[in-house]
């Protein structure tokens, strides 16, 4: 059975899209039955072009990526969620969305990243920040994919995801 992972941020234009792209890229490469999705509590309606560029620079397919509302994951035909990951930067007093919907009983974890679109140094600084954020998110997605998801109970999965958050 496919493990569906929802990656959330407020606007679903940068970090959550990077997470979706990297998780699906690595899952395909590793032959894992895991599917990443992303959404926002207040989606901007567009993906930041620098997020798409950062993904393409890593060889990630970006064709299906779009900014969307988390409402798509609360309907009866939405995929059952195994994991919900928030990626907003609570350290910068950024409000993280709290997701109560979705079918299944997803394990929830917070993996915060600074917003690369707020990086200093103009477009060059932002481009660098997007690349670094993509690498950091990609590394955590590899750690997630190394877990035996199909055989882990909720407490063990929660503990493993919290360990990844601290790494």
Q: Tell me, what's the shape?
A: globular
Helix percent band: 25-40%
Q: What spatial order of strands do you see in the largest sheet? A: 2-1-3-4
Fourth CATH level, the homologous superfamily: Response regulator
Poorly predicted regions are none
Please state the average pLDDT score.
92
**Computed Rg:** 15 Å
Number of helices: 4
- Amino-to-carboxy terminus distance: 28 Å
For this structure, the CATH topology is Rossmann fold
Tell me the series of helices and strands, N- to C-terminal: EHEHEEHH
Q: Structural class per helix/strand content?
A: alpha/beta
Give a nutshell description of this structure.
This protein is of the alpha/beta class and 167 residues long. It has helices at 15-30, 49-57, 122-145, 154-166; strands spanning 3-9, 34-40, 81-86, 107-110.
Description:
The chain is of the alpha/beta class and 167 residues long. It has one domain: Response regulator (Rossmann fold). Helices cover 37% and strands 14% of the residues. It is built from four helices and four strands; from the N terminus they run βαβαββαα. Strands 2-1-3-4 form a four-stranded parallel sheet, covered by helices on one side. Helix 1 links the parallel strand 1 and strand 2. Helix 1 runs parallel beside helix 2, helix 1 packs across helix 3 and helix 2 crosses helix 3. The longest helix is centred in the last third of the chain and has 24 residues.
């Amino acid at each position: 059975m496919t493990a569906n992972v929802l990656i959330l941020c407020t606007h679903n234009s940068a970090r959550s899209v990077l997470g979706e792209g990297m998780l699906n890229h690595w899952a395909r490469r590793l032959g894992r039955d895991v599917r990443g999705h992303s959404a926002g509590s207040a989606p901007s309606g567009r993906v930041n072009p620098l997020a798409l560029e950062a993904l393409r620079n890593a060889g990630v397919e970006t064709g299906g990526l779009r900014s969307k509302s988390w409402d798509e994951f609360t309907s009866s035909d939405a995929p059952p969620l195994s994991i919900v990951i928030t990626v907003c930067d609570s350290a910068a007093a950024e409000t993280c969305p709290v997701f109560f919907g979705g079918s299944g009983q997803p394990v929830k974890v917070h993996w915060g990243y600074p917003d690369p679109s707020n990086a200093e140094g103009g477009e060059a600084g932002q481009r660098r920040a997007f690349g670094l954020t993509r690498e950091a998110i990609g590394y955590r997605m590899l750690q997630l994919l190394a877990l035996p998801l199909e055989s882990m109970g909720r407490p063990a999965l929660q503990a493993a995801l919290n360990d990844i958050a601290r790494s």
